[in-house]
Amino acid sequence: MDNKQIAKAVIDAIGGRENVNSVAHCATRLRVMVKDESIIDKDTVENIEKVQGAFFNSGQYQIIFGTGTVNKIYDEVVAQGLPTSTKGEMKAEAAKQGNAFQRAVRTFGDVFVPIIPAIVATGLFMGLRGLLGALGITLPDDLNTYSQILTDTAFIALPALVVWSTFRVFGGNPVIGIVLGLMLISGSLPNAWEVAGGAKPHIFFGFIPVVGLQGSVLPAFIIGILGANLEKSLRKVVPDVLDLLVTPFLTLFVMSILGIFVIGPIFHQVEQYILAGTQAILNLPFGLAGLLIGAVHQIIVVTGVHHIFNLLESQLIANTGKDPFNAIISAAMTAQGAATVAVGVKTKSAKLKALCFPAALSAFLGITEPAIFGVNLRYRKPFVLALAGGAIGGWLASILGLAGTGFGITIIPGTLLYLNGQLLPYFLMLAVSFAVGFTLTYMFGYSDEVAETAKKPEASAAPVAETVAPTTVISEETVASPLSGETVALTSVNDPVFASEAMGKGIAVKPNGNTVYSPVDGTVQIAFETGHAYGLKSDKGAEILIHIGIDTVSMDGKGFNQKVKADQKVKKGDVLGTFDSAAIAAAGLDDTTMVIVTNTADYADVASIASGKVATGDALLEVK
User: Which CATH architecture has domain 3-97?
Assistant: First the structure.
């Protein structure tokens, strides 16, 4: 099939032109906003020539074609009449997708994602402190005080972090947000935990009981939304010459009154009811909570509203110091990874094996989307049978009373949250979840014969002559690091396409600089106008994709400065472009940069040869 035929096949499979709101593309995939997901023939899409995979993410149907190819397919799709949009417009449209509840939960996720690393670190400190206690080690007074600082600060300041992040998401000034958040936990107010222990709240004006909101989430979230919108409204009416003085003053003045005297007391009480309800569910007898949550959690992930757990988990950690959800969620994710392993073991398809094992590894590191969308949902039964494994594992987690000291990390990394005497029961729960998910899928969930029979018949039975591409002469070589930073396993990045290695093998780097250099002598094949990605071909034959950040195509080039053009010859160490990590963070995105050999199939092996910190020009990948 030529590109025009492929474009037509894609349009037909996604429900025709009438089912498409808009189409755009990034470095690797065609991004389609559809009106009705249910009429997409997903099996047909995934079996179209040159398609390397497809999945839903952020309200978009994303069809993976790879660098270079996606540009050509996009041009053909547009030529056949599909409406286009800018990346910013598509991101805005994606934010509107789903019902009000789905949009609200997605917003919760946008607010909590930047906060999770601090909560994770604090949870690890709690686990280490619990381990010392389990070993009978008593810390000296000074070290004990220091350990309390490590374990308590993030939760005391949680409202400030939430208001800061909410201001950022809703377009306000995050610095104003964090000052407003700090007012909610001012030392002049009675500490929330002391009041819970019997201390009296401060009575303002003779009838308003007020306490500090240490550890609270919901009041801070509401205050952040209202505060950010108030600030934006004020900036529209306050003259520019007075903006610096008047807008912050009025925002803090009005929102401090509402936050401390109205929103805080009301929603703090609402939050207590939510916490009590959550604990009541988790305390259901006979492990019923774990059974139910373990069974449905990955379905919730597919719907995209799983960030609701962030709110519940943060409340549990802040108020009780433990999170039973974490173990149950780990069980559900382990079972999905196990089902993917079972498919990989059972299939004779080299291509499917190459997809299954990296996707499973990604799941065991805490990211199940590659396993779900790349394998399990594609063949349906593995996904369903993995839900049974999650239910059994979740039930066992509840029966054993497992609870993490933090949230945000699961399975292998999550082991660190169970150092306080829970490690062996945690391993037992993971082993049972894996065994059930793997065994059920291996026995009943997949066979190559059934998978082949389930494929859609080709439109024409006539044989099609294969076009034999000219042989590319390639040689062994070492790919240098295009920037300095900390290496990250590709399978652990938070993007299902890259993590599943569908685009090829490689490595990721969490940058500590702002300049990207050529990792090889060669030619620039693609230099995206947005400056977020570069495709190069080395003189020795390696085709390399450098993708700066995750979903940074949505920034439409803001914060990026491209220094090269397509077809330009470059030497190792030449500057390709610059980027602004602060701008990426302000957009709520991750600046982790992927370095991928997209023609991995041309080599016997593509291996990472770097770990930890790397400097620009250090050996990063070896292809042979």
Answer: 2-Layer Sandwich (3.30)
